[in-house]
């Protein structure tokens, strides 16, 4: 089982907060089926399919424009902490 956490965006805690200097954006992390993985621990556990002694967990990340905030150019940086539980 994989679980994810990180520093949440203050205005929308399920998103990962931007530590870069771009303004008005955060980072969303999702599993391949489009289910959001929350930085705040919401919906943050995923199982992985195992085949040939390999675990596969497809993920995707994207920018998220924060409503009501002006956007500004710059870098975007977010950290997702991954914990693996093996049973």
Percent helix among the residues?
Answer: under 10%
> Approximately what portion of the residues adopt beta-strand conformation?
over 45%
Integer count of domains: 1
Main sheet makeup:
3 strands, antiparallel
Task: Give a summary of the structure in a few sentences.
With 87 residues, the protein is an all-beta fold.
How would you describe this structure to a colleague?
The protein is mainly β and 87 residues long. The protein has one domain. 0% of the residues lie in helices and 47% in strands. The chain has strands at 2-6, 8-9, 12-16, 25-31, 36-37, 45-46, 49-51, 54-56, 59-65, 80-84. Strands 6-1-10 form a three-stranded antiparallel β-sheet, with no helix packed on it. It has a three-stranded antiparallel β-sheet with strand order 5-4-9, with no helix packed on it. The chain has a two-stranded antiparallel ribbon with strand order 2-3. A hairpin with a 2-residue loop joins strand 7 and strand 8 (54-56). The radius of gyration is 14 Å and the shape is elongated.
Labels describing this entry:
87 residues, mainly beta, 3-stranded antiparallel sheet, 47% strand
Record the SSE blueprint.
Blueprint: E1 2-6, E2 8-9, E3 12-16, E4 25-31, E5 36-37, E6 45-46, E7 49-51, E8 54-56, E9 59-65, E10 80-84
Antiparallel strand pairs: 1-6, 1-10, 2-3, 4-5, 4-9, 7-8
């Amino acid at each position: 089982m994989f679980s994810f956490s990180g520093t949440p965006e203050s205005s929308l805690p399920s998103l990962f907060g931007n530590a870069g200097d771009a303004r008005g954006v955060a980072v969303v992390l999702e599993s391949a089926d489009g289910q959001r993985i929350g930085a705040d621990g919401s919906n943050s556990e995923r199982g992985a399919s195992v085949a040939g002694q390999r675990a596969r967990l497809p993920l995707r990340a994207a920018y998220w424009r924060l409503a009501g905030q002006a956007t500004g150019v710059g870098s975007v940086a977010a950290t997702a902490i991954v914990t693996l539980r093996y049973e």
